[in-house]
UniProtKB/TrEMBL annotation:
Organism of origin: Xiphophorus maculatus (Southern platyfish)
Location of the RRM domain: 12-75
GO (cellular component) term, any one: nucleoplasm
UniProt name for this protein: RRM domain-containing protein
Record-annotated membrane-spanning stretches: none
Highest taxon, organism lineage: Eukaryota
Pfam families on file: RRM_1
GO terms of molecular function: RNA binding
């Protein structure tokens, strides 16, 4: 599968609001050893959300290609979307952002760095 060469991180979107970290770890753990898993919003969030997103870092980057095969698999009540995600740069995960359009302004340029979602090392 094509993607980001050498990355060990996948982003899983279109998750049911009922999904838990434990369920994600169980499902994606069959595909490779998980080094780190982050679910947003977290399990203990008191607010309700319509969907969730999960970032999974595998020990072996080859697990990313395997995990992508779960795209369109119905889990709970939604079809999963699994895509490779950029690795850390300077200890911080870089997310790809898209310009936003506002009524009176030109598109906002994409940011290069976002707050860390997955910590790497120190």
């Amino acid at each position: 599968m094509s993607g980001i060469p050498g990355t060990a991180v996948v982003q899983v979107t279109n998750l049911s609001s009922a999904v838990s970290s434990e369920q994600m770890r169980t499902l994606f753990g069959f595909l490779g050893d998980i080094e780190e898993l982050r679910l947003y919003p977290p399990d203990n969030t008191p607010l309700s959300f319509s969907s969730k997103v999960c970032y999974i870092k595998y020990r072996d980057p080859s697990s990313v290609g395997v995990a992508q095969h779960l795209t369109n698999t119905v889990f709970i009540d939604r079809a999963l979307i699994v895509v490779p995600c950029a690795e850390a740069i300077g200890g911080c995960l870089v997310l790809h952002t898209f310009p936003t359009l506002r009524n009176d302004r030109p598109p906002t340029p994409p940011a290069e760095k976002r707050p860390c979602l997955i910590s790497y090392g120190s």
